[in-house]
Amino acid sequence: xxxxxxxxxxxxxxxxxxxxxxxxxxxxxxxxxxxxxxxxxxxxxxxxxxxxxxxxxxxxxxxxxxxxxxxxxxxxxxxxxxxxxxxxxxxxxxxxxxxxxxxxxxxxxxxxxxxxxxxxxxxxxxxxxxxxxxxxxxxxxxxxxxxxxxxxxxxxxxxxxxxxxxxxxxxxxxxxxxxxxxxxxxxxxxxxxxxxxxxxxxxxxxxxxxxxxxxxxxxxxxxxxxxxxxxxxxxxxxxxxxxxxxxxxx
Length: 250
What we know:
Helix content: 40-55%
CATH superfamily of the largest domain: Aldolase class I
Strand order of the largest sheet: 1-8-7-6-5-4-3-2
Number of domains: 2
Order of helices and strands: HHEHEHHEHEHEHEHHEHEHH
CATH class of the largest domain: Alpha Beta
């Protein structure tokens, strides 16, 4: 692997080889992600529902993707769709030609299978979305999808463990030498995010509001306030001389 180039294995895989723990992908309006992506987001993931809304705001889909690319040098996952494999590949080429940051996201469907294989041969990484069971995950993994996206919240809405599909994907793929990543999708709450990470997901996809809330805890707030008060005490007592402390009254 040491002789394999980044182009050959893909931008995301190359980065993940650094073994840096679960990837937290962010979704949302590019204007919001300008603030939140630099705070630890691994990259941007889109879906066609969000993209449909954003095109109403910003115009052509290509312009929306350009907005995402303009705010980061991290991976940008663009969801596409189509009725045939050829259509999917033609659409994918429009976006991969924009930047090597682009990763292509395709729904789980028959026409996507050859597309995953063809894109993998070209060194383009892919996300397979809308998987809801193990047989789907097995088929798209064999086809060459780089990331499998088990959906979570729809199961929670019908009273089923929201991460059971994450569990079974992680278990099935654990013995693969070059397995796809299992990235939990449709994660819309902190509790499901925690459950997906505990289930062994390689990553999760969350809107920036969930990412923000993942940092919160009443105990953290309590102890941060205690430590900040003591820090300010030292500052007021003149014991932080030479340290660039800002005036807490402003």
